[in-house]
Design a protein that fits this description.
6 helices, globular, Glutaredoxin, two-stranded antiparallel sheet, alpha/beta, five-stranded mixed β-sheet, 7 strands, 20% strand
Length: 162
């Protein structure tokens, strides 16, 4: 009995360390997400010649709520990038999240809210936790990855420098 518990604990530690050791995608991978009108949005739909800022979030995550509110407060800088907010949750939950925490972002022309209905984001982008924030160059190469909402200033500096 004790041997089984030790093996189980060691296995869980191994899995936890493996997940935390994921390296975020160095280039934007092929993907298919969905707009709220149920049309597919793929990596081929991304703009050229613009930085791409992607936030993977869970509407119930406190850190995600803080991150989106902060991005909204600093939106003047994020206007320079194409912004994509991606969640595995449904439209109703994401809309409520945006109404509550992302009011300043709603309706912005450079922002697209996407649903990961096929569960591809985690396997393809390799986020470590919520929120995962990725900034890619116009050439689709990773410039910056952070998963702490307190580090949004790093994205602001990077985007403002371009």
């Amino acid at each position: 009995m004790i041997k089984h518990r030790v093996v189980t604990i060691l296995f869980l530690l191994f899995i936890s360390n493996t997940i935390n050791a994921q390296i975020p995608a160095a280039t934007i991978p092929d993907f298919t997400f969905y707009r709220f009108n149920q049309t597919a949005f793929t990596n081929k739909d991304l703009p050229t010649g613009k930085m791409i800022f992607i936030v993977f979030f869970d509407p119930d995550c406190d850190h995600c709520q803080h991150a989106i509110a902060t991005i909204g407060q600093q939106y003047h800088t994020f206007k320079k990038a194409a912004v994509y907010l991606v969640s595995m949750f449904g439209q109703d939950k994401m809309n409520h999240f945006m109404d509550t925490y992302g009011k300043a972002l709603k309706g912005q022309k450079n922002l697209v809210l996407l649903q990961d209905k096929l569960g591809q984001f985690i396997n393809k982008f390799k986020p470590r936790k919520y929120p995962s924030m990725f900034l890619y160059s116009p050439e689709k190469k990773l410039l910056l990855y952070e998963d702490d909402p307190e580090t949004i200033s790093k994205f602001i500096k990077q985007i403002a420098a371009k």
